[in-house]
Amino acid sequence: MTTETPSRTVASSVGRRLLDLAGRDPSGPAVTTRSRTHGWQTLTRSQLCAQVRHAAGVLRTTAGPDEQRVVIDLPNGPGFVVAVLATWWAGRVPVVIPPGATGEERAALFQDAPHAVPAVSFSDEPLRTALSEPPPRSQGPEPVAEAAEAWHLPSGGSTGLPRLVPAVGSPLTVLSSQQLLLSAVGWTPGGVQMVVGPLFHAAPFISAFGGLAAGDHIVLPDRFAPAVLAAGIERFPPHWCQLTPHQMQLIAADPKLAALLCRELRALMHTAAPCPEDVKRDWIARVGGDRLHEMYGATQMIGVAVCNGTQWLHRPGTVGRPFMTQVRILDRNGRRLPPGQQGEVVMRSAVTRRLPAAMAARMRRHAGGFYGVGDLGYLDADGYLFLTDRLDDVIIVGGANVSAREVENTLRGHPKVRDVVVTGRPHAVLGQAVHATVACDPAQPVTLREARDHCGGLLAAHKVPVTLEVLHELARSRSGKVERFRYAKPMEQ
Length: 493
Prior knowledge:
Elements lengths: L13 H11 L4 E7 L3 E6 H18 L6 E4 L5 H12 L3 E4 L6 H7 L10 E2 L5 H4 L18 E7 L7 E6 L2 H13 L8 E4 L6 H11 L4 E4 L5 H10 L4 E4 L1 H8 L2 H8 L4 E4 L6 H11 L4 E5 L7 E5 H6 L3 E6 L2 E5 L12 E6 L8 H5 L2 E3 L3 E3 L2 E5 L5 E6 L3 E4 L2 E4 H8 L7 E9 L3 E9 L8 H9 L10 E5 L22
Parallel strand pairs: 1-9, 3-4, 3-5, 8-9, 8-10, 10-11, 11-12, 24-25
Antiparallel strand pairs: 1-2, 6-7, 12-13, 13-14, 14-20, 15-16, 16-19, 17-18, 19-20, 21-22, 23-24
Helix pairs in contact: 1-2, 2-3, 6-7, 9-11
């Protein structure tokens, strides 16, 4: 397969880019969504522009000139897409938060925000109505100059309550740079892209809107369910798709669905969480090493590493080589480590040179303009990055460091364990002790003795779980990550 790079555009904004696409192919499909009440519905490029133009006009009359940020707390669907595009069209900044967020979650999201909580929201009238009502025949406003911030997205929900992370730069500028990154993981512009993750999460958001700005047909199922996915794939076979490892596992459990997805797939990219080795090998066998891609990064976009399946087979466990990014491994004193030695993973890129002060203050800053988000790992002699743990996932047992990931990987080898999360729990003598929460078949739950016997033959004694909790399923975020913070609680006395 030949890989194209995104065509450079002279458009001055995402809105102008949409108008250009609509002018060239007004009846071409832009966004297809599914709802439980209306089935599959497609907005053509001209229809999308008309709806966005109308919503942008309502936004301009609703929000005052000083109200530059607009809350978008909508589920996946046409309303979400139109709301984001209309916000950009009107020169405002979308502040995306999970739909149905609790009061505690909202307070945490805006805790470190350098600006007041936006007063304008697309879930309130009249903006809510503007997302679905037929646009008037009269023309709405033209796109205006874009803001210097592209968006705010939540991050950090896998290990604790999330915070909002801004993307610095105009929407078109940021999306254009992300298109270059997407091209490195198998994406080509103008194809059919199926988006199955929640749009408030960075990877699906960037994939969807980066694709829209390049002429993709975006297909958005309303939920991740085998029957829904199969129906969407049958009608609109995707050329490119982004999944989490957990979603890959669920799809692979239905061989017919997996085969259907791969029918016209040109490339598949996974991100958001470490991919178990058996899942990785299974999907390499399905789509081929040159078509399966992995991207390691963070919502803060301080840098990325990428690799394809063929590279991974030569170096099992790698998350790839840096892409438009410098990566260093540092020891506890901030000194650079040689290849093969584990330390903190830090990155430097074009993004790190223009980080807002409030955002930089929430990350781990190091000499030379390098930043870290708490990951541990090492580089091999050829510059491939391997992740080993997270700083906040290290459990200190009697003064010795225990990797939660190492214990989790060991427990996954037990035949009764379907899923697992390992955390530290307070211990009167050791300070912390290893606690495991596992998901099992209720008819065959693993016992603490079985778990300890299994781990005892593979791990040092201080790494073996002291306590165990058995559940049917583990709580996962809508982006597919285990919500570790839910299990990091003190033991009852």
